[in-house]
Design a protein that fits this description.
Elements (H helix, E strand, L loop, with lengths): L1 E8 L5 E5 L12 H6 L1 E4 L2 E4 L6 E8 L13 E9 L3 E6 L4 E6 L3 E10 L14 E8 L6 E4 L18
């Protein structure tokens, strides 16, 4: 296993895991479901949407195979896939730059995004003990699926009916 611990600025509640070798662009076409899932997938990019929009702790792990996961200890868990045609994996801040560059074997990777400490956030979202782990391993492409959903209304992103504020 390869692991990197990072401290990122999560401006606009997002950071990216992408293939920097293909010149990816951050998606701009967000739907309500993307916000509720807290992860969005676009060609060659996975957008992780932390609850906090300031500094966040992120651990990136790369494994040879699925390391498994006990979701009971996590607040929110999402799985998806990421195409890395050049293998140039980058963790990138929304308004900053690259926080990490890695060179992996080109191919398809499974991604598991794990969120914890979401209940620790202050009312403004500026302080808390939230933490994020992004786990990658080679595997077949699969659609995005939420394994454990955090009640996003507790973060103030949606109302009690699950609608985004207008």
């Amino acid at each position: 296993m390869l692991a990197h611990d990072l401290r990122l600025v999560a401006d606009y509640n997002q950071f990216y895991v992408w293939d920097a070798g293909v010149g990816p662009r951050a998606p701009e076409d967000y739907r309500d479901d993307d916000v509720i899932r807290m992860v969005k997938v676009a060609p060659n990019v996975v957008v992780v949407q932390p609850a906090s929009d300031v500094f966040v702790s992120v651990r990136l792990e790369v494994h040879d195979g699925d390391p498994g996961c006990d979701i009971a200890g996590w607040d929110h868990v999402v799985e998806c896939s990421l195409e890395l045609p050049t293998g140039h994996l980058q963790v990138h801040e929304c308004t900053g730059g690259a926080a990490l560059d890695l060179h992996l074997a080109p191919g398809t990777y499974r991604v598991r995004a794990l969120f914890e400490g979401l209940d620790s956030l202050s009312a403004t979202g500026a302080a808390g003990d939230d933490r994020y782990v992004v786990v990658l391993w080679p595997g077949e492409a699969q659609p995005l699926r939420v394994l454990k959903q955090f009640p996003i209304s507790r973060l103030g992103r949606v109302d009690a009916a699950g609608r985004l504020p207008s």
